[in-house]
C-alpha cells in the first residue's frame, strides 16, 4: 500500500486492497478514507471511488515527510483531530494502538489518548455476560475490545464481532441484536469506530438466494393420500387438484383427500391450525374444513405428514394425538360417533371402547418417547460446540445455588468448556468424586433448587415469578443459562415449565393467552374467579368496586356496561398478571436460554422440547432399562443365558420382588437416577465376566455382571452389591 507500506490483504481490518496497474498504484481503501490531507473531488467512477490519482500522489508525498508516532517510520498520513495533538500514524499502526477511526461525516481519527470512550454508571455491576453475536463470554469492562449497546442494559459485544456483523449486514440491516434498535445503535457504533458500509446485506446480494421461494408447492401431505397417481399428481379443475394451506402455503392436500367439494373452500394445515388454537384466534364456525377423511363408522382419522418446511418431526411431535378419554366424552353427553368440539388441532373421531382409550394412552407414551429421542439428537448436535478444555467448579452441596452462581460467574468459565465438578463438603475430600456421576448429581441438585426457588411460582407447572432482587442481580439470566448448560452437558431437564411459560419462550409473550391455572397468587386467583363467575351485571360491578385498587394498579380498569364485558376484563387481568408483570424477568431468562444455541433449537422444535421442559422423565421400566444397555461378552461366555438372567432380574425389580429399584440400578452404573435428555456418553454397556460380584464403572457407564449357574445366585449377588454400595454412598 502506497500509504501504509504494508502488503497485508485483510479487507475486514484495512478495507479492500486495490491495485491499479496503469497508475502503478496499490492502496488499502481504509488508508485512503482516513488520510488527513485528501478529499473526494471527483465523481464515484473517477480515480479510486472519487479520489483522483493526482490527489493520491500529493497525499503520498505529504505523508512521506511525517513520522509515525507508533512504528517510527515515514508515511504517517493520518493525524489525530484533537486540538493541539500533533500525533500522526499509519492506519494499521493506529488499529494496533487502539485508536478510533470514525467512518462518517469528515472521517475523523483520534489517537489512543484522545479517543472517545463509552461511559458506564459507577453503580453498574461488573462481571461477564454473553456476546450475543458469537455467544462467547465478554467481560463488562470499559476497554477498546468491548462495546456496550446504547439501547439495552445487558447487551455487550466484542468489537471484532460487531465489525464483522456490520460488514455483513450493511447500513440497512445492522442493528442491535437484542432489541432491534437501528438509529441509536448505529449512531453509537459509528462514534466508537465501527465501519458500517453503505451497501445491501451480503445475504441479499447472493445470486439466486431466494430461488426456492419461487417454487410453487405441489404435494399432498395427508397421511393417507387417496390419489392412485401419487402425492405429487396435480390435475387442475378436478378433485385431484392440490390445494395449499391458505396461511403458510407450505403444505398441501388433494381436494378429495380432505373431502373438499370445491376450490373455494378454506383449508389450513394442522401446523397452522394448532398455532391459531394456541393464540385463541381460531374460529370453529368459519373454518370447518378438516384435513381428515372419516369412514362412516367414525373410527378412522387421516392426519397430515410432517411439514416439509422444517426438519421432519417424529409422529409424537404432533399434538393431534392428545385424545379425550371415553369418560370425558360420556360426561359431555356426546353420542359415540359425534365430533368433539375441540380446537381443530386436537379434533379426532373415536369410539367409546376401553380398548381404544388404552391404545390412545399407549400412542401418547410412544410419541413422547419419539419426541425425547428427537431432543436427544438435537442436544448431541449442540454438544459438538463443547471442547476438551476443562473448567472445574467447586460445589458445596449444602449451598448449591450460591456455589453454582459463583462458578458460572467466574472469569474463566465458558459454556463451551468441559465441566468438571468437585464437591468441597465431602467428608473425605481425597475421595471426592470428580467423575460424570458427580456432574449428574450437581445438575440434579441445581434443577431441584431452581424448581423450589423464588424465581418460579406455581405448584407443579410453574411460571416465572417477579422477584425484584433477582432482577437487580440478573439471576433470571443465570437461571436460563444454567438450564441450557445442564441440557447440553448431560444434566437433567427442569421438567416443571408450564405450557404458558414454554409458549412465551418459544412463540413470544405477545402470542400467548394465559389461563386461570397460571395464576399462583391465591388472592388474585379468587378475584379473577369472582369476576369470571359473576351471574349478573350488579354483582359484577360490585366485585369490580371491591377490587378497584388492584385493577387500577394493574391497568385493567375498563367500563363495564354488560355482563359479557367480564370476559375481556378477565383476559386483561390474566395477561397483566401472568405475562406483562414479568416481562423483564422473561426477557432475561430468554437471553440466558440462548446459551449454546438452546433457545434457537427450542423455537425450531417446540413439540420435542416441550416433552422434556414441561414433563418430568417417565418412570423407568424394565423394557426401558433393557433397551438402554448394550450387551457385550467374550467368546467363552454364554451370552443368551446371561441376558436371560438380566432380563428376568429387571422384571422382578419392576414388579416389586426385589429390595432395589430400577433407579438404584441406573444410579449404581451411571451415577444418575434418571436418563438425561441427551442420553449417556458413553452409551451404557453390560459385560458378563468371571467375577464374584457385579461392578458399576461410572466412568465408562459399564455394568460388569458375574457369570452364575442359577438365577437365584445371580439375583442374590446383584441385590447384595447394589444395596450395600448405595447405602455406603448415602452414609
UniProtKB/TrEMBL annotation:
It comes from the Eukaryota. Signal peptide: none annotated. This is G2/M phase-specific E3 ubiquitin-protein ligase. It is found in: Nucleus. GO terms for cellular component: nucleus. SMART domains: HECTc (SM00119), PHD (SM00249). InterPro entries: EPHD (IPR034732), HECT_dom (IPR000569), Hect_E3_ubiquitin_ligase (IPR035983), PHD-type_Zinc_Finger (IPR051188), PHD_PHF7/G2E3-like (IPR059102), PHF7/G2E3_ePHD (IPR042013), Znf_FYVE_PHD (IPR011011), Znf_PHD (IPR001965). Pathway: Protein modification; protein ubiquitination. The keyword Nucleus applies. It comes from Eudyptes sclateri (Erect-crested penguin). Its main location: nucleus.
Amino acid at each position: 500500500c502506497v500509504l501504509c507500506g504494508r502488503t497485508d490483504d485483510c479487507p475486514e481490518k484495512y478495507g479492500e486492497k486495490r491495485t491499479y496497474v496503469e497508475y502503478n498504484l496499490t492502496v488499502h481503501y481504509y488508508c485512503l478514507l482516513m488520510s488527513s490531507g485528501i478529499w473526494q473531488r471527483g465523481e464515484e467512477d473517477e480515480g479510486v471511488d472519487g479520489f483522483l490519482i493526482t490527489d493520491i500522489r500529493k497525499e503520498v508525498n505529504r505523508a512521506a515527510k511525517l513520522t509515525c508516532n507508533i512504528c517510527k517510520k515515514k508515511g504517517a498520513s493520518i493525524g489525530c483531530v484533537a486540538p493541539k495533538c500533533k500525533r500522526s500514524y499509519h492506519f494499521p499502526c493506529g488499529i494496533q494502538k487502539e485508536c478510533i477511526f470514525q467512518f462518517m461525516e469528515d472521517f475523523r481519527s483520534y489517537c489512543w489518548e484522545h479517543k472517545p470512550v463509552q461511559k458506564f454508571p459507577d453503580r453498574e455491576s461488573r462481571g461477564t455476560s454473553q456476546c450475543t453475536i458469537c455467544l462467547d463470554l465478554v467481560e463488562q469492562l470499559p476497554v477498546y475490545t468491548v462495546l456496550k449497546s446504547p439501547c439495552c442494559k445487558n447487551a455487550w459485544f466484542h468489537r471484532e464481532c460487531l465489525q464483522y456483523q456490520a460488514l455483513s449486514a450493511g447500513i440497512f440491516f445492522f442493528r442491535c441484536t437484542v432489541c432491534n434498535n437501528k438509529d441509536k445503535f448505529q449512531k453509537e457504533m459509528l462514534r466508537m469506530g465501527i465501519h458500517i458500509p453503505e451497501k445491501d446485506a451480503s445475504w441479499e446480494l447472493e445470486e439466486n438466494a431466494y430461488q426456492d421461494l419461487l417454487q410453487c408447492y405441489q404435494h399432498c401431505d395427508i397421511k393417507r393420500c387417496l390419489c392412485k397417481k401419487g402425492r405429487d399428481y396435480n390435475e387442475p379443475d378436478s378433485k385431484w387438484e392440490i390445494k395449499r394451506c391458505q396461511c403458510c402455503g407450505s403444505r398441501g392436500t388433494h381436494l378429495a383427500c380432505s373431502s373438499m367439494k370445491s376450490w373455494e373452500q378454506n383449508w389450513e394445515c394442522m401446523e397452522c391450525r394448532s398455532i391459531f388454537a394456541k393464540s385463541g384466534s381460531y374460529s370453529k364456525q368459519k373454518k370447518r374444513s378438516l384435513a381428515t377423511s372419516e369412514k362412516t363408522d367414525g373410527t378412522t382419522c387421516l392426519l397430515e405428514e410432517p411439514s416439509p418446511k422444517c426438519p421432519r418431526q417424529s409422529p409424537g411431535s404432533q399434538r393431534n394425538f392428545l385424545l379425550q378419554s371415553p369418560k370425558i366424552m360420556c360426561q359431555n353427553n356426546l353420542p359415540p360417533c359425534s365430533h368433539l368440539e375441540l380446537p381443530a388441532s386436537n379434533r379426532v373421531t373415536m369410539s367409546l371402547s376401553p380398548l381404544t382409550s388404552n391404545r390412545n394412552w399407549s400412542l401418547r407414551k410412544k410419541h413422547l418417547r419419539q419426541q425425547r429421542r428427537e431432543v436427544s439428537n438435537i442436544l448431541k448436535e449442540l454438544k459438538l460446540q463443547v471442547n476438551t478444555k476443562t473448567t472445574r467448579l467447586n460445589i458445596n452441596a449444602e449451598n448449591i445455588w450460591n456455589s453454582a452462581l459463583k462458578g458460572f460467574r467466574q472469569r474463566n468459565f465458558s459454556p463451551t468448556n468441559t465441566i468438571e465438578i468437585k464437591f468441597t463438603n465431602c467428608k473425605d475430600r481425597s475421595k471426592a468424586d470428580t467423575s460424570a456421576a458427580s456432574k449428574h448429581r450437581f445438575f440434579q441438585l441445581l434443577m431441584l433448587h431452581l424448581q423450589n426457588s423464588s424465581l418460579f411460582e406455581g405448584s407443579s407447572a410453574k411460571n416465572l415469578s417477579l422477584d425484584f432482587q433477582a432482577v437487580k442481580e440478573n439471576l433470571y439470566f443465570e437461571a436460563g443459562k444454567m438450564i441450557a448448560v445442564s441440557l447440553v452437558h448431560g444434566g437433567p431437564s427442569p421438567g416443571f415449565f408450564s405450557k404458558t411459560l414454554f409458549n412465551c419462550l418459544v412463540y413470544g409473550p405477545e402470542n400467548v393467552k394465559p389461563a386461570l391455572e397460571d395464576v399462583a397468587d391465591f388472592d388474585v386467583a379468587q378475584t379473577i374467579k369472582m369476576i369470571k363467575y359473576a351471574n349478573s351485571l350488579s354483582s359484577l360491578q360490585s366485585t369490580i368496586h371491591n377490587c378497584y385498587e388492584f385493577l387500577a394498579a394493574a391497568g385493567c380498569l375498563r367500563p363495564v356496561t354488560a355482563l359479557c364485558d367480564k370476559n375481556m376484563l378477565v383476559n386483561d387481568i390474566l395477561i397483566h398478571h401472568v405475562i406483562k408483570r414479568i416481562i423483564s424477568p422473561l426477557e432475561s431468562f430468554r437471553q440466558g436460554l440462548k446459551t449454546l444455541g438452546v433457545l434457537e433449537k427450542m423455537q425450531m422444535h417446540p413439540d420435542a422440547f416441550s416433552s422434556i421442559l414441561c414433563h418430568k422423565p417417565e418412570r423407568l421400566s424394565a423394557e426401558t432399562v433393557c433397551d438402554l444397555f448394550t450387551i457385550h461378552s467374550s467368546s467363552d461366555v454364554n451370552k443368551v443365558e446371561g441376558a436371560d438372567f438380566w432380563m428376568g432380574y429387571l422384571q422382578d425389580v419392576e414388579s416389586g420382588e426385589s429390595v432395589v429399584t430400577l433407579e438404584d440400578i441406573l444410579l449404581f452404573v451411571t451415577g444418575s437416577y434418571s436418563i438425561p435428555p441427551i442420553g449417556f456418553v458413553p452409551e451404557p454397556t453390560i459385560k458378563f465376566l468371571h467375577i464374584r460380584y457385579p461392578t458399576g464403572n461410572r466412568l465408562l457407564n459399564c455394568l460388569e455382571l458375574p457369570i452364575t449357574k442359577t438365577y437365584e445366585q445371580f439375583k442374590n449377588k446383584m441385590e447384595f452389591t447394589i444395596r450395600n454400595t448405595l447405602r455406603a454412598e448415602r452414609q
